[in-house]
Design a protein that fits this description.
Length: 128
């Protein structure tokens, strides 16, 4: 059952906008009253989303807008110091992110549309 003060799922993009291991779709959220960019991509058929904030230093990670995957398109890689994350869990697997992980945003797909799910901490940009 959804929490009463949490916004309903928010439309993000069409499923076709997230090609397998392709460029990410960026979007804006508000976390703890601060605007933060987030991104969604598809990996092994699953659409996943995270805040665009490295676990090493809280900065944006893409080396070009929407480009988060490494050269082999196996991992999310931070462009700043090379931290490497598992795309499906957001867990750091190598580099200066230690045991950190990316902050996940829940996604669902329905009838060719992708939606992200706000929480008490991560809200749609228009709410604050
Ligand atoms: S800021 Fe991402 S690895 Fe350092």
């Amino acid at each position: 059952m959804p929490e009463p003060d949490v916004a309903p799922p928010q439309y993000l993009c069409a499923s076709a906008d997230l090609p397998e291991r392709g460029k990410a779709v960026s979007f804006h959220v508000v976390q703890w009253r601060e605007p933060v960019r987030a991104f969604a991509l598809r990996f092994d058929g699953r659409a996943v989303a995270y805040l665009n904030r490295c676990a090493h230093v809280p900065t944006e990670m893409d080396w070009q807008d929407g480009e988060f995957l490494d050269r082999d398109r196996k991992y999310i890689m931070c462009s700043i110091h090379g931290a490497v994350y598992d795309p499906l869990s957001g867990q750091c697997v190598m580099g200066p992110c230690n045991r950190g992980r990316l902050t996940r945003i829940e996604l669902t797909e329905s009838e060719g549309q992708v939606y992200w799910h706000p929480t008490r901490d991560t809200k749609p940009a228009f709410e604050d």
